Amino acid sequence: MGVVIPLDESKNKQASIKPLVDLTKADMERVNQLILSKAGSHVELIPEIANHLISSGGKRLRPMLTIASAAMFGYNADHHVKLAASVEFMHTATLLHDDVVDESDMRRGKKTARILWGNQASVLVGDFLLGQAFKMMVEVGSLEALDVLSTAATVIAEGEVLQLSVAKNMETTEDDYLQVIKAKTAALFAAAAEVGPIVAKASKADRAALRSYGMNLGYAFQMVDDALDYGGKAAELGKNTGDDFREGKITLPVILAWRRGTTEERQFWRDAIENGQNDDANLERAMGLITKYGSLSDTIARANHYGTIARDAIAALPASPWKDALIEVIDFCIDRVN
Hints:
The protein has 338 residues and is mostly helical.
């Protein structure tokens, strides 16, 4: 069953991540070299598993935020490269751990590491990458940057546990959902954007602006991801459409459809999400209910709301190609539903 998500038709062109990619290209080449170097180990299974995910075509958006948010304040040394690599290792580690917790089979169009090598190896290699990330943070020598990223690591772990506690529970509220995505997604976006101005010795106001930008971009990014699970294509998601439904994840489209539904429809959601009756026929019905109650368009409207906050957060910063690229990234993240 196809789902069409309405967009703002006043936009004349599709937003692109290309301006940010072009501006950060030289530094990101250094980041990628560092990532490949630090993923190495004399234990052969570690680079094998790490490179399976690292080389699987992720956009590297989070480390690009670190590079851009340092460069926009004139930073031209090396610390932002190590911090960007640390951010990507943290992200990769959480993906390895997520796939084990969620029992996922696909990631970025490929079999997950846990399917190929098992849950134990996936978790342990994730731990190795976290260790390497913290080693690079220490090499930078900034206690402030270390504090921001280590705090994010703690918050992400809390988010994983919180998501477990609300999984397959139809009483989950929208506030609960926001708490989960703040911890699981937005916290690392915020940290990635904040450590750039920290090493660039920017003002506290500028640092706060970039943190707010990253946090709200993270909210918007995750909401769009959650909408795409019910209205996108596998190629866009890097996983199978409907995976959240099959895994019993309580995301915003489900919460809205549940709250707005009839007694009979709510029983359907309990059977599907809480009791695991999540076959293809029930997925199609779930998509129908989500469409019936406008859950996807309202999820995208909320994503647009957080995108606007992100845009406003850096509005007062001086005009520059870096700022323009960061603003376009907001639209790119939301326009993925087109």
